[in-house]
Write a structure and sequence with these properties.
One of its GO terms (molecular function) is hydrolase activity. The protein is of the alpha/beta class.
């Protein structure tokens, strides 16, 4: 799908009167000027909207989603990307307050929903810091789904100035569906941190999937300056997972949930009940084990 790129500046108030730049990646279909698409807020890593983040947003937009990528540190610097170095990493970690992050997310959702080309359904995604921000964006009940790639600081509660966030404590506020993706060798989010996130989401009743890639490290989807950690094959698989979730929750009109709990089928149900085929089995009475079976047609 073709893409049109632009930017939109919106006023902010949470941390002084300023302006946030939102980079917009908009799908287009020639001959259909009134086509409507879901929206996705794409949160950047700590370095703002870098080349890898822009390419990520373009990939999503090319599948039929209006992507809005905010410049996170608009209160302190221009919208240009920060450098992939220790100095700019430290800047990003020290600058921003939680309330300002949350206002940015809300303004991005507002912007997407205001577009006549948006179908009224919004999701969120992001990597690293952006994975955490996508999670926090999902605290907004308007957000139907969020895909969080190696989200940092959720387990340690250290997002933003003061390093005392309430992201895990508020997990119960998430009404949409989450997809959490980590590398098993991610030294920014250790095994005990991932276990804490998963346990809390279960306890809070969040609808979520949790995926840990066997050999992946932190930043494994970043295709530039990832210090040898970029894995194109796994990146492709994870992107397909994103498309499955967004396609199901943002593109389809499922209507309201009926409120019924999912009934788990008894695994002892015979195959013919499921397949509608005659089933012949030989069972050992002594050991109660299935010895063999064949299907008649």
């Amino acid at each position: 799908m073709l893409i049109q790129e632009s930017f939109h500046d919106v006023p902010t108030k949470a941390d002084g009167n300023g302006t946030m730049r939102i980079y917009v990646f908009h799908p287009t279909i020639p001959g259909y000027p009134k086509a409507r698409f879901p929206g996705v807020v794409v949160f950047s890593e700590i370095y703002q909207v870098t080349g890898p983040v822009s390419r990520f947003a373009r990939q999503i937009a090319g599948q039929g989603y209006i992507c809005a990528a905010p410049s996170s540190y608009h209160e302190f610097t221009g919208p240009e990307p920060l450098q992939y170095n220790a100095e700019d990493t430290d800047k990003g970690n020290q600058w921003k307050k939680i309330a300002a992050y949350d206002e940015d997310a809300s303004l991005c959702v507002d912007y997407l929903l205001s577009l006549p080309t948006c179908n009224g359904r919004v999701g969120a995604t992001g990597m690293c810091l952006g994975g955490h921000l996508a999670y926090r964006c999902a605290l907004d009940s308007r957000v139907k789904a969020a895909v969080c790639y190696f989200a940092t600081d959720i387990h340690s509660k250290t997002l933003g100035a003061g390093k005392h966030d309430d992201s895990l404590a508020r997990a119960g506020d998430i009404k949409g569906e989450l997809l959490m993706i980590f590398g098993k060798n991610d030294n920014h989010v250790p095994p005990e941190g991932r276990d804490l996130i998963r346990k809390t989401l279960h306890e809070k009743g969040v609808l979520f999937s949790f995926y840990e890639v066997a050999w992946a490290q932190h930043a494994f989807i970043r295709d530039e300056l990832s210090k040898g950690r970029y894995d194109p094959a796994i990146t492709k698989v994870c992107f397909e997972m994103l498309l499955e979730l967004f396609g199901r929750t943002l593109k389809l009109d499922l209507g309201e949930h009926d409120g019924k709990k999912l009934e788990i089928e008894d695994k002892r149900v015979l195959d013919e009940d499921v397949l509608g085929l005659p089933l012949f089995t030989a069972v050992s009475r002594n050991e109660g084990r299935l010895l063999g079976r064949s299907f008649g047609v």
